[in-house]
Structure formats: structure tokens, C-alpha cells
User: Which sequence fits this backbone?
């Protein structure tokens, strides 16, 4: 997973880059906007792909057409920011999240990321088949065996990414 740690203003392409990440941690006071309309342009950088999927068509259209800023707390409420933290804690929180994910079963996370990314363009039937195939691959991993052993032994799992 890719984590964006954002502070200050994420405008235009900066907003696009943040939304292209899997998770967004934003510092208090951070502001996001689609600045393109303010200079007579249409959006680029994938903004029209990501934003409607994250906040819905009407909310995205309002942000595209107005160029208005949304603060981090509103971004959290709208669903495109995952966490808002104090500015001085931003990098510590982002690194802690990255460390947590790195010690998790990374193959299972990779499979999940692929499933989530495909989910918006697949039918339910094909997505369920994608899930079946991913699950079959996951069951054959050392991480799965470790996770099951740890569960039954009531201990914390130690995943290796294999």
C-alpha cells in the first residue's frame, strides 16, 4: 500500500497524487482542492477517476466546478482522508502505519489491494471469481499457515511475506 502524508495545500495535481494513494494521513490545517477550474482548465492526473469513486459524483462535481478548498476534517467526513493528526505528529503516524502494514501479511494485503482496485470495474460474479482465485493463492502461503498457527496458539503472528 502507498500512504500519503499530507500537510499544507494539496491542489490540482497534488490532490490527484494524494488520491492515487491507498491511504491518506493529513495534518490538521491541510486543505485539498481541484484548482484547475480556477485557471480555466479541466482536471488531469487521474483526479476525475479517483475523486468521484471516493466521494460520489455530485460531491466530486461540486469540487471540480467550484475549485473550493476542503479541509482535512471535511476530507475525513467525505471519505477520502483516512486520518487527521496534529502537524507535528504527521510523519510519526504515517511511519507507524507503514510499519504496521509492513509487519502484516504483505501477500494478503497485495491480493486485497488488487481485488479492491478491480472491484469498481467488475460484475459481482466476476469479482467473486477474482476473490476465489486470490483466496486459493493465499491459502498456499507461509503467512497463512503462520496466521492460523498463531490464532490457535493464541499468540501474535510473525509474518514473513511468503
Assistant:
Amino acid at each position: 500500500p502507498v500512504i500519503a502524508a499530507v500537510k499544507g495545500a494539496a491542489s490540482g495535481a497534488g490532490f490527484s497524487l494524494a488520491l492515487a494513494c491507498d491511504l491518506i494521513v493529513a495534518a490538521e490545517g491541510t486543505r485539498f482542492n481541484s484548482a484547475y477550474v480556477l485557471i480555466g482548465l479541466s482536471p488531469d492526473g487521474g483526479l476525475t477517476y479517483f475523486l468521484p469513486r471516493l466521494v460520489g459524483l455530485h460531491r466530486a462535481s461540486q469540487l471540480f466546478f467550484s475549485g473550493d478548498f476542503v479541509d482535512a476534517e471535511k476530507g475525513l467526513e467525505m471519505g477520502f482522508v483516512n486520518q487527521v493528526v496534529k502537524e507535528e505528529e504527521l510523519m510519526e503516524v504515517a511511519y507507524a502505519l507503514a510499519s504496521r502494514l509492513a509487519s502484516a501479511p504483505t501477500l494478503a494485503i497485495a491480493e486485497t489491494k488488487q481485488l479492491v482496485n478491480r472491484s469498481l470495474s467488475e460484475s459481482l460474479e466476476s469479482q467473486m471469481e477474482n476473490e476465489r482465485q486470490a483466496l486459493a493463492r493465499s491459502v498456499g502461503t507461509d503467512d497463512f499457515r503462520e496466521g492460523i498457527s498463531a490464532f490457535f496458539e493464541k499468540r501474535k503472528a510473525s509474518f514473513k511475506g511468503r
Summary: Helices lie at 13-20, 47-55, 57-66, 72-78, 90-102, 106-119, 124-139, 142-152. The radius of gyration is 19 Å.
